[in-house]
């Protein structure tokens, strides 16, 4: 049971509202309903009060009327849809930016994760899978062969300028130690930052090479620690802390204390690690643009090599050497790259 005349009156009231609306005005459906609310109540009241007594013929006629009303309602709905579509078409230039906002495509950036996912098992530091073959082991390693801004380099002829201060904001953090098959890596909890030149990088992990990959005026060092930071756009900034033989270092000892027994096994340390203690006292540095020093050798990495080395004991170096006696990529061409250094 329903009153077809009610639907019709509603639709006819809505129609002129659509037709007369301007682009900016909202559709007047709401007000049409409001206006219809009084007659609606009346009609319902009337229907309730009317005694239900009708013959078969009357019922059939009413059914037919209802069908006709339905058809008409359908036609009106179609027409309304057309009107609405036309209006949308007219208003497209203004409306589209809100309907479909332009989304900046995600940049393909260098990420430390690439390195472990893509090429972890298929390269080494010697033999057939050694550094000279890296570029051919996997198509994604192409930069290892053809890149013009590769790392490490022999740092020399730096331009001496007043470099931006390195603002280290490290704090004692939870850490895990993993033997990746290429080095010993320390994964750090969140909250360690490096702010330089107005950019904020978070420290993700640090790892070691023996001997140091970078040279300074041709001179190599016993080892190096690479502190790998990432900013919001996944751009990498690596701080290199050169390690020379001398006194034992407490941070190195904490890491070695948690060395895993198996490759790719993660050891969750029970104590915190304060990476601030691994930094040299003086914060002068060399800086240049380079790459990951392991496959896929992705470029666009900001390098900051601390000038002052930090000491580790011969025993500490020997412990690392039992696992990785030599895990350093050879020196790469500078190819006219600018190197800057602190005054
Ligand atoms: Zn490294």
UniProtKB/TrEMBL annotation:
Lipid metabolism found in the keyword field: no
UniProt keyword annotation of Lyase present: yes
Signal peptide: 1-19
Keywords recorded for this protein, A-Z: Lyase, Metal-binding, Signal, Zinc
InterPro entries documented for this protein: Alpha_CA_prokaryot-like, CA_dom, CA_dom_sf, Carbonic_anhydrase_a-class
Enzyme class label: lyase
Catalysed transformations (reactions): hydrogencarbonate + H(+) = CO2 + H2O
Record Pfam families: Carb_anhydrase
Record CDD domains: alpha_CA_prokaryotic_like
PROSITE patterns according to UniProt: ALPHA_CA_2 (PS51144)
EC number, as in UniProt: 4.2.1.1
Transmembrane segments: none
Alpha-carbonic anhydrase domain residues: 121-343
PANTHER family (alphabetical): CARBONIC ANHYDRASE (PTHR18952:SF265)
Family: Belongs to the alpha-carbonic anhydrase family.
Name of the protein in question: carbonic anhydrase
Organism: Undibacterium amnicola
